[in-house]
Amino acid sequence: MVVLAGFLGSGKTTLLNHLLHRSGGSRIGAIVNDFGAIEIDAMAVAGALGDSTVSLGNGCLCCAVDTSELDVYLERLARPDTGIDVIVIEASGLAEPEELVRMLLASDHPGVVYGGLIEVVDAAEFDATRAMHPEIDRHLALADLVVVNKLDRSGDGGRVLGQVGELVDRAAVVPATYGRIDPEFLFDCRPSEERIGQLSFDDLHESQPQPHDAHESHDHDRRDHHSGHLHTAYDSLSFTSEVPLDPRRLMGFLDSRPEGLYRIKGYVDFGAHDPRNRYAVHAVGRFLRFYPEPWTAADARLTQLVLIGSGIDAPALGKELEACKSDAPHTADEHGMWGVLRYVQDPGEGDPEA
Ligand SMILES: Nc1nc2c(ncn2[C@@H]2O[C@H](COP(=O)(O)OP(=O)(O)OP(=O)(O)O)[C@@H](O)[C@H]2O)c(=O)[nH]1
């Protein structure tokens, strides 16, 4: 079992999808933890695996008071009849890796061996992310394998690789584009007993969270013993609409999105503007891309978005998105999609595996 962590939008889901497609004879089970209430990441990896993907819903796994849900999933994936060799837990972009590792070590499921922490780094956003979140350095120091991703977007990948190399303890540092690493790394990155000791095994025991009232909500829980976590500074907003969105209005919203709105992901239905495709959307910092994907018969024609940011006014953003709903969902003006299409990636750019 390995933990796949890394800041918002660094490329964890992309890497997981790569592993799922390139794992050769090994079977990978995936557990996906989303921060937003809509399970966008789980949707993005679904299909690749059928019943060997499970999704842990809303909130950060590192703040779960009750880990029994995780245990149930681990048990399900660890059953011999699933034939699963390795379980990858994709943490939400705001999870605290140390807490996650503690939980997994505590879960003590027979047949499941903890195999290390993989941190994904967005090389293009590395400086900005570190400036905002100096704790990223601490996360890197804990990692067993660091994937320096998005080297295609980074002007000076060599420098970032060098800096990451200085920040890690004994981790391997692997350069990547679209998360394309050799799956062998996953099986080889098992830490030794001693390495777990270095991962502050003592801390892990000393600072066990206190038992909580079972009825306490996760949100409140975050405020007390998780006050130092990255995600305490972040708010998320989930938006779902059955009415298609108007492309011009949505672009107006996206073009004026506030600085603190760091991450947007999900799927957009533009109705009559493109009845055949839904548009996966990813914004990471100032970066924005749409990825048209044909609707399948099984898809509900919905827009589902998760927005994550710090210092954002979530209710106000929700209202702005409401105002993007189309007044005439069944009619399309001829040039309506131009603004969106500017952000659809060129053929030739992008992940050939996608
Ligand atoms: N140019 C480029 N884009 C990438 C690369 N890897 C991932 N992306 C894009 O970056 C965006 C975010 O990737 P995800 O894999 O969803 O990131 P994530 O870490 O799972 O995101 P969160 O779950 O929100 O934390 C998507 O648009 C990806 O297509 C890369 O190496 N190069």
TrEMBL record:
Residues 204-228 are annotated as: Disordered. One of its GO terms (cellular component) is cytoplasm. Signal peptide: none annotated. It catalyses: GTP + H2O = GDP + phosphate + H(+). GO terms for molecular function: hydrolase activity; nucleotide binding. Keywords: Chaperone, Hydrolase, Nucleotide-binding. Residues 204-224 have a biased composition (Basic and acidic residues). Residues 234-325 form the CobW C-terminal domain. It comes from the Bacteria. PANTHER family: COBW DOMAIN-CONTAINING PROTEIN (PTHR13748:SF62), COBW-RELATED (PTHR13748). Belongs to the SIMIBI class G3E GTPase family. ZNG1 subfamily. This is Cobalamin synthesis protein. It comes from Streptomyces lincolnensis. The lineage of its organism: Bacteria, Bacillati, Actinomycetota, Actinomycetes, Kitasatosporales.
